[in-house]
Amino acid sequence: MNALRAEWTKFRTAPGNLWLLTAVVVVTVAGGAATIASVRTGDLAEYSLTGVQLGQAVVAIIAALTVGGEYRTDMIHTTLTATPRRITVPAAKAVVVAGVVAVSGAVSVAVSLLVGREIRPGLALGGEAVLRAAYGSVLYLILIGLLTVGVAFAVRDTAAAIGVVLGLLYVFTVVAQMVPDPEVRTDLKRIAPMSAGLAIQATRDVADQPVAPWDGLGVLALWAAGSLLAGGVSFRLRDA
Asked: How far apart, in whole angstroms, are the C-alpha atoms of residue 105 and residue 20?
């Protein structure tokens, strides 16, 4: 509990974090509004939530700074002195990142859907599929944050962690789209963290998606779990 309190204190007192959390909301809502304003038909709920694809980049920056900032300033040694049990440090940081991303993600998703309904009155906010897309999108952002925490502990550098995560999210997806073989392309979409995870947003023609909504989010959860495991092991084996 002391470690968690310490990590929360460091997070809320770090300059820029509040603005970054605000940026998650702004870019997510703006991205969704721009998309749904440009379409006439289709999956309106999913279009309203497309801003998550932009908001996730800010989430990755927040998570990377939460870990990498201590390596840049060598504060990690002070943290380890105060918290000798190594597993406690990454666990506490992961909980803090998950918590703040959950709040900003929930606000982002709720406002995105409300704005989407204002732009397209035909967007229904009730129903099981839309609710699943909504809270699934929040879970998606949380998993992106946890994925980044693991990567940041493994590489011990903010810029490198951001680069690795954004590469996994965007480059992997772009490459999958460019593969000429449709079967290979589908297989890549099923394992790519972004395309698989965002399957949770589909509310129409779900059966035509490369991966089922919850299965896709499960794929992203496996990426996040693997990243946290790798980062935790790396942190435990190194001097700092």
From this structure: 12
